[in-house]
Amino acid sequence: MLKTTAATNIGLIRQTNEDSYICINPKTYAVADGMGGHAAGEIASKLLVNTIEKFFAEKHLVKIDQDVLAKIILQANEHILEKAEKHTEYAGMGTTASLLHIEADTCFWAHIGDSRIYLLRNNQLSQITQDHSLVWDLVLNGTLTQEEALVHPQRNMLTRAVGIDTNVKVDKGSFDLEKNDKFLLCTDGLTNMVSEAEVKKIIESETIDDKAAALIDQAIRAGGVDNITAIILENDDD
Question: What was the pLDDT predicted at 134?
Answer without folding.
Answer: 82
